[in-house]
Amino acid sequence: MPPAIRIDFARPMALFPLPSVVVFPHTAEWLVAFEPRYRQLVEDCLRARTDGKLLSAAPFAMATYASRHWRGTRVGEPPLRPAVCVVKMVDHRALPDGRHQILVHGMARAEIDSIAEPDGRRLYRLARLRPLHARNDAARRMPELEASIEKLVNSGELARMPRLEQVRQWIRKGNVPTEVLVEQLNDLLSRGDACRYGLLAEANGRLRARFMLSELHHLSTLLGDAARRTPASDTRGTGLN
Questions:
Q1: CB-based contacts of 6: which residues, under 8 Å, 6+ apart?
Q2: Where in the chain is the domain with CATH 2.30.130.40?
Q3: 149-171, pLDDT tens digit by residue?
Q4: CATH number of 13-131
Q5: Which of 2, 16, 76, 122 is most buried as measured by Cβ atoms within 10 A of its Cβ?
Q6: Is the sign of the CA dihedral 222, 228, 230, 232 positive or negative?
Q7: What global pTM score does this model have?
Q8: Which residue in 43, 168, 21 sits closest to 100, CA to CA?
Q9: How many Å apart are CA 153 and CA 123, to the nearest integer?
Q10: Rounded to whole angstroms, what are the CA distances from 120 to 77, 87, 105, 125, 126?
Q11: Is the separation of the CB atoms in 153 and 164 below 8 Å?
């Protein structure tokens, strides 16, 4: 995870819209910028570096298109859904054909206030954003919630899930904020764009944590039921006649 970085919401940020939510705060995702407007976006963000280091490149916002079935607020044309994730590039690879492969790390939830459409040389949209969080400080540890997570991921069939091993390691080390654990688990557990967008748009951290615990309980129950219905490995393929 990158070091703590403050986001200047007084400055407009470039918009990188996709059909669905791909990243939450405290999670990371590889992307490929191949359209001319998004290649330009990446290059402009890189050009803003003040010290030559990647982390000083300008942040931008991962947005999502509002489909014909979307019933909420729409912003701009083509319309976007208002909630976005502000990201920073933490890895960048310029490809021979002019595309950019980038690893983005989610930094903060935000909401679009206004959009500036492409103008002149600029091929991508800019937006004025406002943060979607109640506090303006670093992610923190919450011992009671962390204890609940630890109990779940180390019990029953969940204890055998390799995809939860990173979370177990972070809990053992004790140096990762609990909010990071919640975001990582929600990224893993949430399915469907409506669910993922709802989590991105939810400013209340307690509600996001409640969803995560509910999904862990549900997954534990499903896996436990499946395990009880599955014959033990030493009896598979045999019949009791």
A1: none
A2: 13-131
A3: 999 999 999 999 999 999 999 99
A4: 2.30.130.40
A5: 16
A6: positive
A7: 0.88
A8: 43
A9: 46
A10: 17, 25, 29, 11, 13
A11: yes
